[in-house]
Amino acid sequence: MEYAWSVSEQSGDTVKLGTLFYDSGTVLSADVKCVDGAVENFPLTVSNIVFGDMEGEIEYEYVSGKYLPSYEEIEAGNWENSWQTVVNSSGSITAEYDGESVAIVLEDSPLTMNWQILEKDVSVSVPAGSFDNAVKINQELIYSINSLTIESSELPMDISTEMTFDSDYWFVPNIGLVKTQVNSTSMELFGSAFPVEMTGGSVLKSSNLIQ
Predict the structure, then answer these.
(1) What is the chain's mean pLDDT, rounded?
(2) Residue 174 zone, left/alpha/beta (φ > 0; ψ -120 to 50; rest)
(3) For residue range 2-44, what is the model confidence (pLDDT) as tens digits?
(4) Domain ranges of the chain
(5) 3-state DSSP assignment of residue 80
(6) Is 128 helix (H, G, I), strand (E, B) or coil?
(7) Side-chain half-sphere of 142: how many Cα atoms within 13 Å?
(8) Contact by Cβ (8 Å): 8, 207
(9) Angle at Cα 124 formed by Cα 27 and Cα 81, nearest 5°?
(10) Residue pair 105/93 in contact by the 8 Å Cβ criterion
C-alpha cells in the first residue's frame, strides 16, 4: 500500500497532517502534537494496512504515553528505548478479507502500542526515495474489539475479542514514517491466542517534507 504525507497548518506545537492512500483514494486528516520534542499522537493506519479498502470510520482519542520519544530521550537510552502509547478508539468499519465480509465495532475500546527500537542508521528504499539513516522500531499493537462479525457460510461469528499485531516501522529523521510491515497477527478466542493470516505493509510514495 502506498501513501503520501502532507504537513500544513502549524499552530504552536501542533501541525495538521494529511495522509492519502493511493489504492483507495482515502484521505485522513489529523492533528499531530509534539511535547518537549516528543511526538504525543500520530494518525493510526494499521486498519488500512491490514484490511485495505474499508468503509466506515474510527475515531482515536489520546490517553497516555507518547508515540515517539524526543531525540534527547533516545540518545540517553543509547538507542535501545522501549515505551508505550495508549489511545481510545470508537467507531465501526466493514471490509472484505479473504473473500469474507468482516465488520468491526468499537466502543471506547483501548488500543495499546508497545514500542522497542531495534536498530538505527538502517538503509531503506521506498518510492519516495532511498535513505541510509532510518530507525527501525518494532511495535506490538493490542486492539480490544467490542464486536467482530464475520459473515461466512462455513463459520459465521460475532464475538468480542482482542487482536495483536506485531509490526516493524521505519522512521527517517525530519521526514517521519516511510515504511511499515505487519509481521504477524493473532486473535484471542476463549482465553487463548490463535494466529491469523493477516499481513501487509505500506510505503511512502511522496511527502512535502522531502526537498
Answers:
(1) 83
(2) left
(3) 889 888 888 889 989 888 888 777 787 888 889 898 998 876 6
(4) 43-207
(5) coil
(6) coil
(7) 11
(8) no
(9) 90
(10) no
Distance CA 176, CA 124 (A): 13
Q: Chain-centre distance of CA 206, in angstroms? A: 18
Detail the DSSP E strand segments found in 12-98: 14-21, 27-35, 38-39, 54-65, 82-97
User: What pLDDT, in 10s, does the model give residues 169-203?
Assistant: 999 988 889 999 989 988 887 677 777 776 678 89
Alpha-carbon distance 118 to 116, whole Å?
Answer: 6
Give the pairing of strands 201-207 and 2-11.
parallel
Sign, CA dihedral 41-31-144-52, equals negative
Could you tell me the three cell numbers for 153?
457460510
Burial class of residue 89 in the structure, from the number of CB atoms within 10 Å of its CB (0-12 exposed, 13-18 middle, 19+ buried) = buried
- One-letter amino acid of 54: M
Taking every pair of C-alpha atoms in the chain, what is the biggest distance, in angstroms?
A: 55
Cα(132)–Cα(175) distance, integer angstroms: 13
Dist. CA 65–CA 51, nearest whole Å:
26
Q: Which amino acid is at 211?
A: Q
